[in-house]
Please model this.
Amino acid sequence: MSNKHYDVIVIGGGLAGCGAALAAARNGAKTLLVERINALGGAPCTMGVNPFMPYKTRNPETGEVIPLSRGIFAELEDNLREVGAMRHNAFNAEWMKIVLNRMMLASGVELLFNSVAASVKREGDRITSVTVSNKSGLVELEASYYIDCTGDADVAMLADFPYRLGRPGDQLCQPMTLCFQICNVDPEKFDEIQPTIIPKWQEEHKKGYIKNPMTEIMVFHTPIPSVVQLNATRIVKKNPTDCWELTQADIEAREQIVELYTFLRKFIPGFENCHIVNSAPQTGVRESRMIDGEYVLSAEEMKDCVRYPDRIAAGNYDIDIHNPEGSGTSHYFFPQGQYYTIPYRSLIPKNAENLLVAGRCISATHEAQASIRILPIVCTLGEAAGTAAALALKANCNVKDVDISTLQKTLTDAGAFIG
Ligand SMILES: Cc1cc2nc3c(=O)[nH]c(=O)nc-3n(C[C@H](O)[C@H](O)[C@H](O)COP(=O)(O)OP(=O)(O)OC[C@H]3O[C@@H](n4cnc5c(N)ncnc54)[C@H](O)[C@@H]3O)c2cc1C
Model:
């Protein structure tokens, strides 16, 4: 048992967890952030995800550009720019780790790395401790409030709060993708050739010898001109919360990397001398468990741009569903100038008294999650959860009873946009 008692423990140091820990600490809570690996950032480090997906809209009448993800996310982007770690929307994930460490330490967040949440004690609807497994053994940690930012809702699951997996009916999740990078690409040719990569891949795909079901392969810039990022493998019909199936996914994805690399070298000018330079430590999971919360965010309400009375974040990224069964990706693009909001209730597991959830595993339908999952938005969800936990602490109340107008004012005073 750790002899320290924290006000707030955040589990998971992705952008949701970073937003949550910073907001909790800055609002006066003694905060611990627990992370499974040795660095912050989440999917950009663990799953090789890059770049930031778009998060701005333009008012069609005035032409005004409205950033929908601000607050801590905007601060992170500024800090990355300052160290020269941003190009277009792409960022250098190594610098992101450093920048996030500095932000945490400057705000007084305590960090515990290399520690995996392994079990949870619960009395009634309150969590009383979270035990992590690490090189010291099993370490029990106590706090007044907990924020689950594990991406997979591990803490909510371990505490037996209800959750769903994937889409209704067959529980299939969006496909997994092992991201990787290719170096020694001719940067002069890349800009010109980039639009031709998908048509050429699809032409070869039609011939029937390619096993990877993904037809719209994504090849992005990185901040290093001769290195490109591929979000281009696709593993379908595997459960991302079953480690046996995950292992199969890893093996299959690695063969798809070979297939893609061979294709690029053979058919794409500028890639003749390229090399595989790295693959992510973990096959990327777009969707897995989603909590059953006090409110379930739906795509229908997003499309209607509902302004929830307890809105704490906003977004307009398209409803981007990679086919859970094979090829193809469906999209719903929000019209320019329009955006949806996200209610605070979708961060609260049903009946939970001192647990909040932020990130891609909030209470949302399969379709709604397909939009809210992007890096800028999860950071804003984390910021809202951290702020709410700090306010609950001050008021000594359950997370459900946090005063919404104080929460919204605290968020907007700190630079957040809530619509
Ligand atoms: C292949 C792929 C491509 C994507 N492409 C883009 C893109 O181009 N742009 C974009 O904006 N978004 C993209 N996304 C979406 C985005 O990356 C994720 O949805 C987002 O990172 C989720 O953030 P999170 O903080 O909820 O979870 P994560 O980023 O996954 O962070 C969770 C953190 O918790 C830690 N953790 C997990 N379990 C435990 C535990 N039990 N104990 C302790 N720590 C734990 C993990 O190590 C991790 O650091 C992509 C996702 C994938 C998978």
About this structure: The CA atoms of residues 39 and 255 lie 28 Å apart.
